[in-house]
Design brief:
With about 170 residues, the protein is mainly beta. Helix content is about 10%, strand content about 45%. Strand 8 and strand 9 form a beta hairpin.
Length: about 170
């Protein structure tokens, strides 16, 4: 199935009918996913244990909570190969690059990979691409191809997880 994500709205590519919307919360990185009828479906957030080092991305967990507060999906980001602080050290001028996350949806494990800032893929445990998220360039928006059949709110959650990975790679200013 092919979808378009534009201005936080997920639509089937053949029609303009909105299937789900992503909205920002008032503060922080929390994103609210709503139905086309504006019913709250899910909430995405970044969690870091208080006792853990907040600068190490491996201590973070991206969560997608359903309307009852139960975890519907979670993701654990990881550093790009060769960027791990144990092997490469902590760079002075930037944070180590993050390029993937282990994703768990309904008990099944997947791998979300940032191929570039304009292209993401979700692979199943066998390494087969089942979701592709590609930026549309000057036209704007994103095209999502789902070969697995995820619900629209889960696809929105995956899109938010992609944006969280991008956020990890942004240049920090003090």
């Amino acid at each position: 199935m092919r979808y378009t994500m534009k201005s936080g709205m997920l639509m089937r590519q053949e029609s303009d009918a909105v299937l789900a919307r992503i909205r920002n919360a008032l503060t922080g990185s929390v994103r609210i996913i709503r139905s086309s009828g504006d019913q709250r479906l899910m909430e995405a957030q970044i969690c870091t244990p208080e006792s853990a080092c907040a600068s190490d991305v491996r201590n973070k967990e991206y969560r997608l909570l359903d309307c009852s507060g139960c975890v519907a999906a979670c993701a654990f980001p990881g550093y790009a190969q060769g960027e791990e602080p144990e092997t490469a050290g902590w760079p002075i001028h930037r944070m180590p690059r993050v390029d993937h996350a282990k994703v768990i949806i309904d008990g099944a494990a997947y791998r979300l990979i940032m191929r570039s800032s304009r292209r993401y893929t979700l692979e199943d445990s066998a390494g087969k691409e089942i979701v592709r998220i590609v930026h549309n360039g000057l036209a704007g928006g994103w095209t999502m191809e789902d070969d697995h059949g995820f619900r629209p709110e889960i696809l929105c959650g995956l899109f938010v997880f992609c944006r969280y990975i991008e956020l990890e790679n942004e240049f920090m200013t003090i």
